[in-house]
Amino acid sequence: MANLFTLGFGKVSDLVGKLAEAGLTAEMAEEVRKDPALAEIIVNALKSQPTFTLVHGLFTKPEEQIEKVRKWNREFGWGIPDEAFAAAEKSVPAWPEEKLVAVVLVPYLTDKTNEDETVTSGLERTFHELWARAKSEQDANWRWDGYDKAGPDRLRLHKGIEHKVGLRWEVIDLGAQRNKKPHDVRSAKSSPHAGILAAAALHPQWVKSMDGDKVPYVWVPGYEVTVPGFEPWAGVPSLRFGRDWSRVGLDYGLGGRCGPSWSVPSFFRE
Questions:
Q1: Distance between CA atoms of 232 and 152, rounded to whole angstroms?
Q2: Between the CA of residue 201 and those of 89, 100, 104, what are the distances in Å?
Q3: Is 242 in a helix, a strand, or coil?
Q4: What is the pTM of this model?
Q5: pLDDT band with cut points at 50, 70 and 90 for residue 127
Q6: Cα–Cα distance between 195 and 103 in angstroms, integer?
Q7: Per-residue model confidence as pLDDT tens digits over 159-218
Q8: Which of 222, 233, 157, 225 is nearest to 192 (CA)?
Q9: Residue range 112-126: mean pLDDT, rounded
Q10: Nearest partner of 126 among 57, 177, 79, judged by Cα
């Protein structure tokens, strides 16, 4: 990393001004100048901030994502084999420079036979498990209760998208297609689904940073939902963060609607 003095006098002067605005007094500055331990405390505090620990200040680094998914795999019995993690470690994609483009490790789970001998499909299981991990990373959460019974008559993938079991990296532009209608821009080739929920689970700071302005709320365009009272499969899941309640929310909207606070994420194409 570059030496502080390469900033030049003007930027250093601006930095001092910002510190003064934050409450740093001449007496404090003199104590820091005389005591290297105080300077170290300040620098270590800065290093612990998301700006310096996360990619673009928003996203968890790939190696930490692998460890998180590995931990969840053990704790919740997902059944992902060790070979899949070894392959993930060898195939980490380059991280694009665009601030709202994220590299995400996405688990696509197998079908599960329940105690009552009913079967939860891999699609449904992945949806529920990733939402459970996403909400556990936040202080509070809310989900439309229609997802509690998200069977094949309530939740499905957009036409042409398949649920392919495995563990794979996806590069998703979470700020793409701002103020667009999901029905107008989604496609089988471009629209993520479980990857958005995996991003919410693995990148909790991204969720916390959603404000509908610099960091938009997102549709989950690869899924379709049936909402009582509306035409079948007209709904699209939506993910947002309510700052008033510090709460992540998994809701739905009609895919023919749009708004400037929302993006329709897509797989990143350079």
A1: 12
A2: 19, 16, 10
A3: strand
A4: 0.84
A5: very high
A6: 10
A7: 999 999 999 999 999 999 999 999 999 999 999 999 999 999 999 999 999 999 999 999
A8: 222
A9: 90
A10: 79
Sign of CA dihedral 110, 207, 238, 195: negative
Cα angle, residue 166 at apex, residues 162 and 170 outer, rounded to 5°: 75
Q: Cβ(31)–Cβ(38) under 8 Å?
A: yes
Euclidean distance between CA atoms 250 and 24, whole angstroms? 41
Is-contact 251 242, C-beta < 8 A?
A: no
Q: Are 166 and 108 spatial neighbours (Cβ–Cβ below 8 Å)?
A: yes
Does position 48 have pLDDT exceeding 50, yes or no? no
Q: Which residues are CB-neighbours of 113 under 8 A, at least 6 positions away?
A: 119
Q: Looking at residue 7, what is its pLDDT? A: 59
